[in-house]
Amino acid sequence: MEQAVIAALLVVGLIIGCGVGAAYARARRGWTDYTAAKKTVPGARRTAWLAIRAVVTKLGVIALLLVGAAAYAAAGSDEERAGPAPTPTPTVTATPVHRVGR
Asked: Is the pTM of this model over 0.85?
């Protein structure tokens, strides 16, 4: 009877030991992953700020171009500043006039 109890305790101990060992391995792997990720945070933060800076710069250039286009459109075209265009003078004749040389 003692051998059966010892065998049962050995099997229970092996099952519990496997569970505890697997949990320890997962915790150890998680800690290793955490420390590796913690080391990469400054580099990732720097990369993120560089990407944000690039986007803000592009948006600033686009905004300046839009403001310039709106100012150009608000100033009007060159045709308005050229002065009045000559208007044709109407000829009032009842009969057509024949010109010499044509």
From this structure: no
